[in-house]
Automatic annotation (TrEMBL):
The keyword DNA damage does not apply. One of its GO terms (cellular component) is plasma membrane. InterPro entries: ANF_lig-bd_rcpt, GPCR_3, GPCR_3_9-Cys_dom, GPCR_3_9-Cys_sf, GPCR_3_C, GPCR_3_Ca_sens_rcpt-rel, GPCR_3_CS, GPCR_3_vmron_rcpt_2. SUPFAM superfamilies: Periplasmic binding protein-like I (SSF53822). It is a multi-pass membrane protein. Gene3D superfamilies: 3.40.50.2300, GPCR, family 3, nine cysteines domain. Residues 501-754 form the G-protein coupled receptors family 3 profile domain. Keywords: Cell membrane, G-protein coupled receptor, Glycoprotein, Membrane, Receptor, Signal, Transducer, Transmembrane, Transmembrane helix. This is G-protein coupled receptors family 3 profile domain-containing protein. The chain crosses the membrane at residues 501-523, 539-559, 571-595, 616-634, 660-683, 695-715, 721-743. One of its GO terms (molecular function) is G protein-coupled receptor activity. It comes from the Eukaryota. It comes from Varanus komodoensis (Komodo dragon). It is found in: Cell membrane.
Amino acid sequence: ENPRILPNLTLGFCIYDSYFTAKWTYQATMLLICTAGRLIPNYKCSTQKHLIAVIGGLDTQTSLHVATLLDIYKIPQVESMSFAVSLPEMIISLQYAGILSLLLHFGWTWIGTVVMDNDNGEQFLQMVVPVFSKSGVCFAFIEKIPEPALGSDIEDMVKKGAGIHDKIVESTANVLVANGESYSMAFYRFLPYLSEREHVANAPIGKVMIVTAQVELTSFVVQRNWNTDFLHGVLSFTIQSNNVPGFQEFLNTKNPSSPKGDGFIKPFWQQAFSCVFPDPLLGKVGGSMCTGNEKLECLPAIFFEMTLMGHSYNAYNAVHVVAHALHAISLSGMRNRGMVTRGGQTFPMPSFSFQLHHFLKSVSFNNSAGDMVSFNENGELVTGFDVINWIFSSNKSFQRVKVGRMDAQAAPGQAFIISPEAIAWNSWFNQPVSVCSESCNPGSVKKVKEGEPFCCYDCVPCPKGKISSKKGRHYNEKYPSKHQDFCIPKSVNFLSYEETLGIILTSSIILFCLITALVLGIFQKHHEMPIVKANNRHLTYAFLVSLLLCFLCTLLFIGQPHKVTCLLRQTAFGIIFSVAVSCVLTKTVMVVLAFRATKPGCKMRKWMGKRLANTLLLSCCLLQAGICLAWLATSPPFPDIDMHSVAEEIILECNEGSMMMFYCVLGYLGFLAMVSFMVAFLARKLPDSFNEAKFITFSMLVFCSVWLSFVPSYLSNKGKYLVTVEIFSILASSSGLLVCIFFPKCYIILLRPDNLELIWIHSRNLSSEASSFPLWPAKYPWKPRAS
């Protein structure tokens, strides 16, 4: 009674049993909407029963069957959290997220699951299995308990139940997640007594059970004195609730002899206390007689609880929701649309049940337990879940202890709260362990068993070069100790400017650049000398500049690899080096053609000149540039990290992208070098004073020797030593060209200028045909000394 809600008005109620079957559920619903004793749809002449709303059944199927008929008449059904399929997924998903958080908190990754064989059980599996598996939880087994129904094959149900029990007992999974309906626990309690094996006539030992909020602690009459040991320590999810003050006192006032008692009390009293009430019509009845003074608190808690929890609490809230909605109607503008007269007084009531829908959605109040009851904009109940620990004592007393919660309004990652120290585990174990395979010890790694779930694995020694310092984990950022039980950080490997090798190479590069620049300066200073003018002076300058750039491009190979340096490193080397080798080839070809053009009647004379040299040089270089552009367009080089080649090091390198294109660049350089060598070899018998054939031949021998030895060295080295090999090859081949071709000329220019007289005299003795195409300039400001 609450004077602030519907004052002076008492709401009546009718209770019908669904018997867990669709047939009786439909019949009970028809009795609500029809005239008493007449199952005639759309006909109701009784004015004493004005149906306003229906409180839904405890289980899913009951609520759905009831809704099928009530929807026709627009009569609201207030769910007492039966978790029907039509309920908001937000609430259902919140519970499943809480179960997953509980499993992960205790490291339970190997579980069994039991559901009822109905739509609710199938929905549970469809929502839970993918999410749990993704989070690392494996299912040892998934079993479906046949749903009881009239006409069911009892023998078949018993056989299936026995098989499920034996599988639970035999499984290595120590955690059982049980989903079902309000009555499912009564059927779960039958399983141990259905075992086909005589030595397993008890409940599963050493298993912890997690039950969903749909499952209520219920028992059949025959189960009142059954063993409850296996239920001790159960963790259940229930809708958030608190103790309703005055409820136990209210129960103590109930007496089957009271004239105001409802029709359920006497049958319940007789079943609960195993007694009978005297009935004059039946005469003397065997058994103890009920006095009406029996105490409800003396009943086993498994049979009757003195607290308002679980589904009972939900039904309590559902009744108050309807009452508050009716009170809101009485205060609204609808008060004159429908009036109900009771005891000479008139009360505002809705004329039709559908008028209640609008007010139900806007209900918000604090119940007597202090909990807020409200709905969101979608008409969904805003609530969370409590994690309850079931504690049974030897005297059959029962206690629910709240050990955690799942808060629907908490921030992400903070919704689940658990207090492990408050949990009373079963006497057979402390906090249980439920994993398919134990974590691997340091020095070993997981190997999934073939045909088994992913959390079932063998532990094998770590591969060479890897360690496992934590259970079940191995790292690549460190390398193992001798016994592979702790990490040693890997050192980062790349050729830097600060280390000794980098300093030596950088100094060598600078030295060769200075020497090349010095040679170029000497040739520019003495640019009018015949030895400089001979065989295309501008080609000589281009050759020296390309050699200078060859030395400089090796600086791209030193330092930590970056995107730009990786892109330029090989392509710049390939193009610049092709210019240098092409200059050698062009000089050699021009020497050979020049001497052949001196023969009488030779038609090559018209091809001689700068145009041929420039065309040959550009053609050779453009072909290499095309190869490099194709390389950059298809598979460009990029910075990479090699963590596997060397166990103790992390190698920072430039991945070539396409090794085929890299070898194409080298192959083309080799082709130019071989052609230059062959042409120079053919020109070796020409007069030494007029050509560089023998020096070019020797320089090409050096060049080819260096790059032929480069390939095996490149393939056999890693890290900074691989880069060093390439830098050395570039420096060695470039310096070979510089020394072999230009040092002899510098020697003559600087130290033996008198040799130029011999060259000049020798040129005068050439045949007259040669004078028509002189390799030595006919006019020059500098004249040889007279002998």
